[in-house]
Amino acid sequence: MGSETQAWEEKLLQMATEALDVVSSFTGFKLTPERLEDAYAGASRIIREHSRTFHMASALLPLEKRRGIQALYAFCRISDDIVDGSGADDRLERLEAWRERSTTDNPRPDDSIAVAWAGARAQFGIPKGLANQLVDGVAMDITQSRYATFDDLAIYCYGVASTVGLMSMHITGFAGRCAVPYAVKLGVALQLTNILRDVAEDWRAGRLYLPQDELAAFDLADVDIAQGSVSSRWRAFMKFQIERTRALYEESIPGIALLDKDGRFAVAAAAELYESILDDIVEHDYDVFSRRAHATQWEKLRMLPGIWRKSRRMSVANLVMTE
């Protein structure tokens, strides 16, 4: 890729390589077309209710791939909801039960989202190892609420987001494992965007994802987060975080050329629409305490034609020229 690989990247690429080799057999997998149709409809409702951005992006895919992405989103959503359940002492047990239900090669016919996800995994050859890493990643929210360094945070970002990108890549289609580093880096960028947007919400939930050593370097402490103080120190800290996240987007976007043509627009849209959240943070003076940064529906629609034109121009030849 365009920049020197850092230690955290090497660790994440090793994790990805290990997961990609753990596949499912789906021996004896049998689901009627009607049952799969109902299951996919349930997955579609979940993404429509919970994420306008990803619902809009998934709508840009051909039908079969759209259903696969929506099943993936529903699998991730349920995993997150189990972890975010308030006051539950049995979250790890329930998450493990969901892992077993959702990664089995033969789910119960009445387990709708597990059925949709099994159908997607079977159709697109999504490695079971990646699904397990996603569950491991969301489980970290039960056992860990702070991250000492960015390298530590990157491992969390990989678990909850890069795994999603790698699974999505199997649905959209991709040129080969040369695409893996780009998907890993894009996942980290997307999750960092979430983290920067949701500082106040996460703090109220008892979590602080911002690297402790970097907060200290800008002379920031828990009291600054608790008070929601948009000071010069906070602005400088957020500027540093946003610049790094933008660099990760910039380094990952060329890898979209390694996806199948009919999937490039959707992935490019998801990435650029999400990155626009950073613009909103900057435009509101880095205040992520009194409001939740977002792009409006009109702003997203206005961006789509330009994203479509760029996605049409993407090619492996252009990617090689940038290396």
In short:
With 323 residues, this protein is mainly alpha-helical. The protein has 16 helices and no strands.
**Helix residue percentage:** over 70%
Percent in strands:
under 5%
| H-E order | HHHHHHHHHHHHHHHH
Structural category is mainly alpha
Contiguous helical run count:
16
Which overall shape is indicated by the principal axes computed on the Cα atoms? globular
How many strand segments? 0
Instruction: Tell me the Rg in angstroms.
Output: 19 Å
Topology of helices and strands:
Layout: H1 7-20, H2 33-50, H3 52-58, H4 63-84, H5 91-103, H6 112-124, H7 128-143, H8 150-172, H9 180-197, H10 199-204, H11 212-217, H12 222-227, H13 232-252, H14 261-283, H15 297-313, H16 316-322
Helix pairs in contact: 1-7, 1-8, 1-9, 2-4, 2-6, 3-14, 4-5, 4-6, 4-7, 4-8, 5-7, 7-8, 8-9, 9-13, 9-14, 13-14, 14-15
Question: Could you explain the architecture of this structure?
Answer:
The N and C termini lie close together (6 Å). The chain contains 16 helices and no strands. It has 323 residues and is mainly α. It is globular and about 60 Å long.
Which tags fit this structure?
323 residues; mainly alpha; 16 helices; 0% strand
